Amino acid sequence: xSQIIEPVMRLINQFSKLPGIGYKTAQRLAFFVINLSxxxxxxxxxxxxxxxxxxxxxxxxxxxxxxGDSACAVCCDSTRDAACVCVVSDIKDVLAIEKTRExxxxxxxxxxxxxxxxxxxxxxxxxxxxxxxxxQGGISEIILAxxxxxQGTATAAYIAKTIRPLGVRVTRIAHGVPIGGDLEYTxxxxxxxxxxxxxxx
Length: 201
Description:
By secondary structure, the chain is of the alpha/beta class. It contains eight helices and seven strands, in the order αααββαβαβαβαβαβ. α5 links the parallel β3 and β4 (105-109).
């Protein structure tokens, strides 16, 4: 059996660090890159570096925005309902909800969920930023749209308990999203119905 040379092995190891990429897929990606032209590889590397350099978090909600902008596209959209804030655990969840084209409010991205098993507590995710936004006034409803798994449910319960005394309505996305499912992989119609059918939490 031939041994994989060190430069290719390093590339495989880098690909295998990506979420959802196992060794065989990483190997396949590495060999694909090796077979690209020098120009294609250079363009790919430039785009990786460009995205990393130019993509930053919105200082308002935590969504992605381009470096140099004052806020993300959603926060800057004057047609959105700034009184309704949908709280999600990840930027991918913003993209999933936006695909429904039904939600007209704004967002707050936590960048994680409470997970004691992984050493992640309330102070390790963006809950303080949410409390600060509520304290500034103008928010009447918080929609908790974390995943309906153990960590997502625990995070939603903690946030609800924390912000309920602040006088805002707290709702939770309801039916349609399966227990243990990820918003990222939920279809648009199901997500739309979940948001429409949200309940007091």
